[in-house]
Amino acid sequence: MTPTATATPGKSLISPTNHALVLIDFQSQMAFATKSIDATILRNNAALISRAAKSFDVPTILTTVAEKSFSGPMFSEVTDAFPGQTLLDRTSMNTWEDAAVIEEVNRIGKPRIVFAGLWTSVCIVGPVASAIDQGFEAYVITDACGDVSTEAHARAVERMVQLGAVPMTALQYLLELQRDWARAETYESTTGIAKQWGGAYGLGVTYAKTMFGASEGH
User: pLDDT tens digits for 165-174?
Assistant: First the structure.
């Protein structure tokens, strides 16, 4: 029997209200050894997803490891999007084993969690595997993660996918939150984020608006 199509989004799509974002260890010491992605691209993508989450009021957890004693401050590209928000500093490599982080996860109360940070094979695999084991849905923004080698990053992503995690990209995260250009309340914010941090796509938006006054929603 042929199914009946309806103009409704798939249940697996990210929306502003169906998930929490957890940003992990975007810190200097972790970035120094990251080789799977260029540091400029990594910082750009971290800024993009941070601004996207802020724009759409996505509940976001910021967590660091040994901030004062070893790893250094979190990227300003992340913290500038959340002025005044407390960073949850840990000793555990696995964020999911930190009581303060878990208390915040439970306070937010979302069954779906999106992860990004450094390093993919340690600080992302750990909480993703743990969250899935406890019944949460896990998504990973793979181009806002990095590792000590391309091999390490790739194997980590494969491992998480095998466990049931869903991979996505930074720009995909922003556009999936917007999803409909007729959503006027976030249109300017979304295109503004894209113009600043959306790479070639952002250049296209800037060009179209400047040259033709284009607007996707009309």
Answer: 999 999 999 9
